Each structure stands twice: as C-alpha cells, then as structure tokens.
Structure prediction request, 465 residues.
Amino acid sequence: MKFKTIIEPFRIKTVERIRLTTEEERREYLHAASYNPFLLKSDQVIIDLLTDSGTSAMSAEQWAGIMRGDESYAGAASWQRMEAAVRDLTGYPYVLPTHQGRAAEHLLYTRIGGKGKIFISNTHFDTTRANIEFSGATAIDCPIPEGRQPDLFHPFKGNLDTQQLLENIEKYGAGNIAAVILTVTNNSGGGQPVSMANAREVSDICKKHGILFILDACRIAENAWFVRHREPGYEEKTYRQIAQEMFALADGCVFSAKKDALVNIGGFLALRDLDLALQCRTVLIVTEGFSTYGGLSGRDMEAIAIGLEEVFDPDYLHYRIKSTAYLADKLHELGVPIMRPAGGHAVYVDAKAFYPHIPPEEYPGQALVCGLYLKGGIRCCEIGSVMFGKYDETGRLIPAAMELVRLAIPRRVYTQSHIDYVVETFSGLLENRQDVAGFRITSEPPFLRHFTARFEPLIPVFETI
Ligand SMILES: *Cc1c(COP(=O)(O)O)cnc(C)c1O
Prediction:
C-alpha cells in the first residue's frame, strides 16, 4: 500500500510546553512589542517559524552524545569524532571548528578578501556579504534569472548564472576574484536547490581560471534530496554520496551546523589547501579558541558529529522536504500566493499579492506577519521593504523588489497538526483581508532595522482583523 500521509519518522520522548494564548492576550503582547515580532518573548508565541537556524530538536542519540562530551582543552575525543565526521563527509583534510557559520566565514573571507577583491555567488547570505564587505571586498550575486521569478517553475532555482560568472571574470580579471561561493541550498532565494550540473560547471570554470571555489554548505543534505529527485542520473545514489560528490567539486566549505547538522550552535570551515588552512588557523586560535575546539564545547562537537550522520537518513530527509512541500501545497490550494516550488527549509508568501491594496510604503509584509501572530500566535519574518527598504535623499522609501514573508520550518520540531493549524490561520486571514491596513514605522536604527524597528498600525482597521 502506498501511503499519502507523511508521518514524522520519530517518536516524541521529551516535550516542551506551548502556552496557548488567546487573541486578546496576543493583541496586548503585539502592542507591547511595537508590532515587531522580533520583540516578542518566545513564550508568547505558539508556533515559531522565525528561523530554521539553531532551532532543531536533537535526537536521543545526540543528547546521549552531550553526556559523552569530552571537555579536554586539546585533542578531545569529541573533537576527534567531529573532525572525522566532517572529513568523511566533505573529503577535505583540514577542519577548523567555529562557534557558528559566520565565524568560519570571517576566518576565510577576511584572509582572502580585502580591498579590490571580488566574490561571486548564486546569492551571498547576509552574514556572508557582511563579512566580505567588512574586509573591504565586493560581493556580487549572480543567480539565474528564473531564481528571481516567484511564480515560475524551475527544478533548480538556486543555480548560479555561469554566463554572468564568465562575464565577471572577464571584467574584473581572474586574479582579482577571491572566490566563487555556491550557497546550497540558496537560503536567500528561498532555500532553492542547486543542481550537480551547475556545481560542476562552476567548478570547471574556477579550475580553468585558477579561482578558489567554496561551498556555503549548511543545507547540503536538503540540497541532495532535490538532486536525487530532480536531476537525471542520481536516482540510485544515496543522499550522502550526492553531497560527497558536490563537496569533491569544490576547494572547501563554510558550514553553519545550526542547519543540517541538527544542533543548536556550531559550525566549521573545511579546506583542501594546507597553507590556507594554516593561515585561517592562526586567526582561529586568536579569535575563537584552540584549533581542537574553536569556540565549541566538547558536547557541542559530539552532537554535531552525530547530527551530520542523522541528517542523511533517507526517511528523515524525505519527511523534511515533503513536510515543507505539504505546507506550501496546502497554502497554494487555499489561494495564498507563495513562491513555487517550495525550497527545502521555508515557504515564502508573497505579501504584495496577499494584500494588493496595501502599498509597499505601508509594508504589506509587516501586516501579514502581525496578522499571523494576532490570529494564530504564529511568528515569522518579513523579507521585504522593512528588511531591505532604503530611503532616497528626500526621505522617500525605495521599496524592496519583493514583499515576502518567510515561514521557516525548524527541523523535527513541529508535527503535521501544528502545520495544519498554520494553514487554518491563513484561511482565517484570507476571509477579511481587504479590510486590513498597513503599518508606519515610528522608530528605527540606522542598520538592520528589521530587528528593532517599532511600528504603528494605520488603524483603526488593524484592530478588526
Ligand atoms: C545561517 C547561514 C550562515 C551563517 O551561519 P550562522 O551559524 O548563523 O552564523 C551562512 N550561510 C548560510 C547560507 C546560512 O543559512
């Protein structure tokens, strides 16, 4: 018998209480948080879809590993296990542990970056771009054009545009390109996958021009699922083999363990080149910690080693990708405008299409984020003009290209009924969406305003949703 129901391939052994607040309570909390969900307290939230980073539920095996953690300063057994797990997966001989992904980025990109250097990526993740620009270098995004069209179907919307890559090599000179970074899956583009063919093409171009090729690999297991199911020739390979094949194409990787290593903190940099690794190791010891723990405790490293195994379990990966698609499909059926097909870790809702009567200056994404919280206690993140909007000289808003709301799904945390509840909340919001009004910003910091900005609803309409 072929089952349609996707069951969670785990039993629940420890539970964490969710406090079921009422709409009245949430109205007060939202007001107190100045209509910015980043300012809510987590116990005021019923379903937290703010991020999939560091929010995974660890397995019984990982918790057992936590107890086994060897906290020796140098050469801990837990480090040896993590190093072996990373070497075996990536094939890179030199592994540098870091407290999270951005620390690995900082080690490498400040080493190879600097003024006049160029980095090219399918899309640089925020912290990647920040580390590159901090070094004085320039980060250029070259996603394929299909990746920028929310409604268009393409099996590998995360691919890098190799034509643009070649043009940039021509324009800036291979010697000035510090690295090409392939982000798998492409986080900023909605967790969209990258094909093996694309990775191979990028690899060939980099080899030919002598350019360093780095994978930003924190969701490479999720990416492997898409390769196996969408790219001809990979049906018979295991997810792990697919990931290994992709690692083999590159010269190294940065990795945030808070994603596919199924832990709450951690990361690493892994490299093929000894000389580069030694240069980064010097900075590691100055800024993170000795080279056999680099800012992590022994128990963290133990949990990472186990998580890197567990994430390739075919039942887990199938459940993971299918349950993200489940949310996307249900929302699509309801008539909620979303980016399709769904990526691996998140569903993006097109708030501009959801609230067509709210202009970008009144932040339709923020209206949706607040509506989801008020109606259902669901917390998620605006990725639109609140996050990326800028002002011109006259103080007028230059809106972002898209007004999206991201529903990021923590790994192994929520069950199907939680997701059904999210869908039901959307159906409630659809009912009187024409009555919903937008927001005005009352105070904001000069940088990264979405974290701490304060808002005011253009009432009285908001009160009625
Ligand atoms: C999360 C993330 C990072 C940064 O990792 P942190 O652990 O948050 O520092 C880098 N790249 C991508 C693609 C990510 O998703």
Residues 53, 100-102, 125, 127-128, 183, 187, 216, 218, 256, 258-259, 267 surround pyridoxal-5'-phosphate (CB under 6 Å). The chain has two domains: 23-52+313-462, 60-310. The first helix runs from residue 23 to 32.
